[in-house]
Structures are given as structure tokens and as C-alpha cells.
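Reviewer 2 asked us to include a model.

Predict the structure of this chain.
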Amino acid sequence: MSDLVDRDFERILIIKPSSIGDVMHALPVLNGLRRRYPDAKISWLLSTACADLLNGHDALDEVIPFERKHFGRMWRSPSALVGFLRFIRDLRRRRFDLVIDLQGLFRSGFVTRASGAATRIGPDNSRELAGVFYTDRVAIPTLEEHAVDRYYRVAPMLGFADVPITFTLPVAETERVNAHGLLQVRGVDPDRYALVFASARWETKVWPVDRFAELVDGLQERLGLAVVLMGGRTDAIIGEEIAIRCRNEPARLFNVTLRQMVALIESAALVIGNESGPIHVAAALHRPLVTIIGPTSAVRTGPYNRPDHVARRELDCAPCYLKKLSQCPHHHTCLADLSAETVLAVCEQALNPVSDDAKVVT
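Predicted model (C-alpha cells):
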């Protein structure tokens, strides 16, 4: 380890292709690397779907887009295979001397090795035999630990353990102006609004539609917030179901760009959602937020250092990490029985914190 601590790397690659939440959790590593190696060229390999999150980041020299879905077909598509080989050739031409794989899966490990870098770091608990591609391994404890802290365990190995964990995201003024314009067109006061993200990648992470509708009514009537339902196509389907159940129809903003989403989150009075990427963006931007958590662990993937902004039920069966509703033997009670009143109480606490004591409302 001492050898790596003392070494000055000049060309560094971070591999953490997706998802939005995972990229947010890995952001402090970028900041630490930039502080430790101020003159190095630092690149980040990102899936094309996430690339705009970090384009223009002050600490980053280059975002390398990774065509994840296209390359995933390379074993049955000659054109995808040729494209992947060209990608690896271009990667090698950059002559990285340090690659850090924060993904820890076979594909990311393979790319780490194929980069040609002499020093290749990955977690010692990597899966799918990815560990065979690394020259050095980061010790990951078995205890419950937040993903942010887990990724940051590379810091002592590279000599930036004393750099505080910080999050920064690029938001241009033009993007702020554009985001406010989107709100004003829909009659939303840009100085006092709540964003609601009602979907998630796992079925089991999604709070019921009728509860979301009750919450939206409470946010508007009790807390005096304009409410904007937003997100992508999946959010649009759920959002329309929520809107028709509300007493006062909320605004909707779907299919916005990633940069628009970040700008809208940055100026929101409150951000509410299932445990998903936008919530972690809100945490990185230090916004008041509420995360609705069911089958996952608030300790591992909740909003970082914000346990007081979590709404969940404490159950013996949670966290279970089951992704499909059909897998749950308890009828999804972790979220099905979580009341709108409970979540609204956490929203009030997030907007009007009464102390610095961390509390989880259940």
C-alpha cells in the first residue's frame, strides 16, 4: 500500500458506468483524486445514459461514454463486437497508469485489465471473478456500510484519506434559467416547489400510487408547496395515475434531460421519492429531501448522512433486497402499509428541522 500512497499517477481512469445513484455515491472519490493528484488527467468511464451528469465537471478532464447496451450484444452481434474492440483500442491509446474499478463486476474488471494500465485497483469483494483483473485490491468490510464510505475506502490506499467526503455537480446558469422556464410554463412558482419522483428500477421500491396521491394533496394543502411530478417514461405512467387521484392536479414534467433534472433538483424546496437516483442527486446537492425506503437498507443506500430524512417501517423481514413483487411473501407490507401521514411528517421535519439529532420516522 505504501508504494501506491507515494506514487504520483499522471493519467487516471475511474470505472463506474451507472446507475445515477451509484455515480453520485462515487463522486467523492473524484474529488479526493483531484485533491491528491492536482496535475493528473482524470477520466471517468460512464454509460451514455449517465454521461451528462458529469460533463463539464471541474474536477474531471474527460467523460468516456460507454455504450453499455450495445456492447452487451457483442457475443451475438459482429458490429457490436467490432465496436467494443475499437473502444478498447481507443482506451489503450490514452495510456492510463492507474485505473480504479468501483463497479466490481466481470465486464468492468475486464475493461480495467484491457486498458493496459500498470496499476489496477478494485474491491476485494468483487463478483463474477472480476478480481483476477486487478493488481491491487481494496479491503471491503462485511459490516453494513454506506456505498459512499465503501467506495471511499480506496482513499487510504492512494493517500487522500484526509480529504473530506464532498459532493459537487456541474450546473450551468443557462440550465438554471431553462429549468425555471419549464416551471413557469406550467404555472409553478420556481421559489417554492416540491419535486416528486414516483418510480424506481425495482418493483418493490415503489410506494403505492394512492399513497403518493394522498401525499401530494398534503404537500399542497398542508405545507403550501406547489408539486411537480417528474422523471422519465416510467414516471410519466405512474405520474398520470397519481394526478387523477389528487384533489388539486399537480404539475407534471416528464422526459426532461439529466441536466434539466439536476437544475430543477438544485432549486427545489423539497425532493421526495422512492430510493432511486434523483434522491441521491438531491443529497449530493444538499437539498431538503425525503426518501421512502422499503426492501433496501437506509444504512447502505439511503441518502448519505441523512437518516432523519428517511420514511420506512421497521420490520423483521426488511431489508430483503427482493426486486419483484411476486418474490415477496409478505405482500409488500414494508411499503403497502406505510401511510401518507407518516411520510408527510418526515416532509415537515425536512422542511423545518428542529434539531441536529438524526431520527428515522417509522
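The chain is about 35% helix and 15% strand. The CA atoms of residues 88 and 111 lie 7 Å apart. We have added this to the supplementary material.
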